[in-house]
User: Which sequence fits this backbone?
């Protein structure tokens, strides 16, 4: 069974559209994250939730809105998609938000804006 | 497959040789460090971690060295195999919790059979 699973794996859409990416983890972790990886492979944290509560919110346009219905799920909704949003988006999870534990990543959602 | 950025440092090693991947971290207060391996089309995968109260930690075929004086981290892979080909990231976690991990720029390891 996949520990952290994201859907869809690929997302191709027009500029201006609204889209969502879903993430689920079956590791029983308390904390989940969204990262953006650009074409140079640079990974940057966007958001983090601990037990459904937002704890990290980096400088991300407010077109990006995360939602955590429960601690096993963290979805990402993006409004009015722009060309610069093209990237690979990774979901991750870890045990605890205040302890040093490695993060477990999904295999990414490759978003391409036409 | 995914395109690789022109600015991604690349290390090429012969199969069977040892590999050393280096990383400079930015925050002298960071107290937890992790190495991740990212294969093409996959997410980063945990390899090994080290806390700031240690300077060396060994795993299976991998060793991480931490030099806090110069804010340097290295990953040594013994007897490199073709399956080790990937992009390797170091990551640092500053104190204060909330896992606001900062990733390094990544190094691509190419293993020559």
Assistant:
């Amino acid at each position: 069974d996949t520990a952290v699973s994201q859907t869809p794996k690929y997302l191709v859409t027009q500029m201006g559209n609204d889209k969502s990416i879903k993430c689920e983890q079956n590791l029983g972790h308390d904390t989940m994250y969204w990262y953006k990886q650009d074409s140079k492979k640079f990974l940057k944290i966007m958001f983090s939730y601990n037990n459904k509560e937002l704890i990290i919110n980096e400088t991300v346009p407010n077109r990006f809105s995360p939602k955590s219905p429960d601690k096993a799920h963290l979805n990402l909704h993006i409004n009015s998609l722009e060309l610069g949003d093209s990237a690979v988006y990774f979901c991750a999870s870890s045990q605890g938000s205040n302890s040093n534990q490695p993060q477990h990543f999904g295999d990414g959602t490759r978003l391409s804006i036409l | 497959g995914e395109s690789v950025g022109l600015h991604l440092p690349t290390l090429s090693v012969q199969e069977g040789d040892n590999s050393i991947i280096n990383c400079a971290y930015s925050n002298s207060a960071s107290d937890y460090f992790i190495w991740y391996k990212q294969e093409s089309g996959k997410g980063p995968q945990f390899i090994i971690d080290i806390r700031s109260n240690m300077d060396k930690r060994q795993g299976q075929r991998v060793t991480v060295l931490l030099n806090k004086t110069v804010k340097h981290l290295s990953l040594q892979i013994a007897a490199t195999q073709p399956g080790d080909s990937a992009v390797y990231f170091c990551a640092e976690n500053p104190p204060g919790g909330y896992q606001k991990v900062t990733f390094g720029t990544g190094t691509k390891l190419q293993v020559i059979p």
Remarks:
- Residues 39 and 86 of chain B are 5 Å apart (CA to CA).
- Chain B touches chain A at residues 2-8, 31-32, 34, 36, 38, 41-46, 49, 51, 87, 89, 93, 97-103, 105-106 (CB under 8 Å).
- The first strand of chain B starts at residue 10 and ends at 14.
